[in-house]
TrEMBL record:
Domain Beta-xylosidase C-terminal Concanavalin A-like intervals: 313-507
InterPro entries found in the cross-reference section: ConA-like_dom_sf (IPR013320), GH43_C2 (IPR041542), Glyco_hydro_43 (IPR006710), Glyco_hydro_beta-prop_sf (IPR023296), Glycosyl_Hydrlase_43 (IPR051795)
This protein's name: Arabinanase/levansucrase/invertase
Gene3D superfamilies given in the database record: 2.60.120.200, Glycosyl hydrolase domain, family 43 (2.115.10.20)
Pfam family, one: Glyco_hydro_43
Keywords: Glycosidase, Hydrolase, Signal
Domain of life: Eukaryota
Length: 513
């Protein structure tokens, strides 16, 4: 199943599409800390993923509006800490892939990703094909926090920092050649994106979480830099959300410029918003319209549709699509693909704690509200296994199967340092008919900031008639976890390993079913 812009799925946008206009968000998924660039007629988009694996998803578009997932820059969170494997009793929530940078280097026809992990080490990965296999280039013992990479001919520059902004120059083997502080701000700024436009050097930075500023140098990559506001708390296209901020700028083949930012839109997360901007005679950028993120704008280029975001994944290709990410690194020996389709999840952890259960497979929730339905073959579960569908974040709930009973577990909570505070409480349960082998579990989630914020769980034994289980679960809207709520498919053992389930299908539908 391929994924693209939610806009293509909305009837209101169907009308706008015919007029070759778009509205924000261009993609109602949680895809924050954006870096975007153009190679020819194709645009590429990279985002943060924290402790989800693989990390740093890559999306591609032909028009900056309709996007599809094509891969990940970091195939596994190989950061020299077993916490990323949910091993040794440790976890890595809110660590891992933060704001980072992916760019194409024409000099060697290669795509590169760079990012700081755990505030101490910067990692570099590369690939000849962004949809193909990525490999680690190396590590730098300096944290390029919230970095933006610029390829300027054969020169490699990286802008980074919080309030004090620096520019590093790298050698051709991606080791550090030098680093120079180029600006110190009296306000908090971060999220650097470095560009060279008309022989001027720019570093776009954000003042979290509302304003965007720009540093401009006419003298070279190391400055001196002037500092000026770019966007001041621009209006959002999502009711009840935050201001579009922190993103990257990109041009079209025709020379028009666009700013792809993101909007804090919890409980769903942070979603991309696009607006056109222009440069004045002195090279300073400003939005074409002050409310450019909140209005319909003409497509940057002729629309290039991609397949709908909604649909059914039967896991029949023998590999997971790039829209999927595990909670922490998976145990690859504990999942496989059935010959006739379906994802086999063997229990990989002995635990009663979903937050420490390995091989929980997650999928972003499609906004403004959507429904996920999974079909589970439970015939190989043991009496002490649990498997099901979760509404996954630092406050969670799930519908699951345990010993022939459907259960609703709620109020799972992460506390200080993201350690488990509560494994939740059983709200209610329902017995399944004897010898039931297939169960359908459903979760409808309203992630509109101005919506109900509720998740509603239901189940079926025939895939047609569904019965709600328990009361709706209200999602929180705090930003501290950064990643928004996700659908999570899990299977774990409370006692011994050996059981398994087959996820025969995952269906995603916009709205309620």
């Amino acid at each position: 199943m391929k994924f693209s812009s939610v806009v293509a799925a909305l009837s209101a946008v169907g009308s706008a599409f015919a007029q070759q206009t778009y509205i924000n968000p261009v993609l109602w998924y949680d895809l924050a800390d954006i870096d975007v660039f153009r190679k020819g007629n194709q645009y590429y988009y990279s985002a943060s993923t924290m402790s989800f694996s693989p990390g740093a998803p890559i999306l591609r578009s032909g028009d900056l509006v309709n996007w599809e997932f094509i891969g990940h820059s970091v195939p596994r969170l190989d950061f020299k800490d077993t916490a990323y494997d949910l091993a040794d009793g440790k976890q890595a929530y809110v660590r891992g892939i933060w704001a980072s940078s992916m760019q194409y280097r024409e000099y060697d026809n290669t795509f590169y990703w760079i990012g700081c992990v755990d505030f101490k080490t910067t990692y570099i990965y590369k690939a000849s094909d962004p949809a193909g296999t990525w490999s680690k280039v190396g590590e730098i013992g300096t944290c390029y926090y919230d970095c933006g990479m610029l390829f300027d001919g054969q020169n490699i520059y990286v802008a980074y920092g919080n309030t004090k902004i620096s520019v590093a120059q790298l050698n051709n083997d991606f080791t550090q050649k030098s680093t120079t502080q180029v600006y110190s701000s009296s306000i908090t700024i971060e999220g650097s994106h470095m560009k060279k436009i008309n022989n001027r050097y720019y570093i776009f930075v954000t003042q979290p979480a509302s304003n965007e500023y720009v540093l401009k140098s006419n003298s070279g990559p190391f400055g001196p830099y002037e500092f000026k506001i770019f966007t001041k708390a621009p209006a959002s296209g999502i009711q009840g959300s935050g201001n579009p901020h922190q993103g990257s700028v990109v041009d079209t083949p025709n020379g028009d410029w666009y700013y792809l930012s993101f909007i804090d839109a919890y409980p769903g997360g942070r979603s991309p918003a696009l607006a056109p901007f222009v440069f004045d005679s002195q090279g300073w950028p400003s939005l074409k319209a002050a409310n450019g993120f909140a209005i319909a704008n003409p497509y940057p280029v002729n629309p290039v549709p991609v397949k709908s975001t909604s649909g059914t994944d039967t896991f029949s290709s023998g590999k997971l699509g790039p829209q999927w990410e595990w909670n922490h690194n998976p145990d690859t020996s504990k999942f496989s693909f059935a010959a006739g389709g379906g994802l086999v999840l063997k229990t990989a952890s002995v635990t009663k704690d979903l937050y420490h259960a390995k091989n929980t497979l997650t999928h972003r929730i499609l906004g403004p509200d959507s429904t996920a339905t999974i079909q589970l073959d439970i015939s190989q579960m043991t009496s002490t296994d649990q498997a099901g569908l979760s509404l996954f974040r630092e406050n969670s709930a799930y519908i699951g199967i345990r010993n022939g009973v459907v259960i609703l577990q709620r109020d799972l909570t992460l506390g200080a340092n993201w350690n488990t505070l509560s494994t939740g409480r059983l709200e209610t349960s329902a017995s399944l008919p004897a010898k039931t082998t297939n169960v359908w579990l459903r979760l409808h989630a309203d992630i509109k900031p101005a919506g109900t914020h509720q998740g509603v769980f239901s189940y079926s034994t025939d895939g047609k008639s569904f019965k709600q289980l328990g009361t709706p679960y209200t999602m929180n809207t705090t930003y501290y976890f950064f990643i928004g709520y996700r659908f999570g498919i899990f299977s774990f053992a409370e006692q011994g390993l050996g059981g398994s389930v087959v996820v025969k299908s995952f269906d995603l539908a916009l709205g309620a079913k």
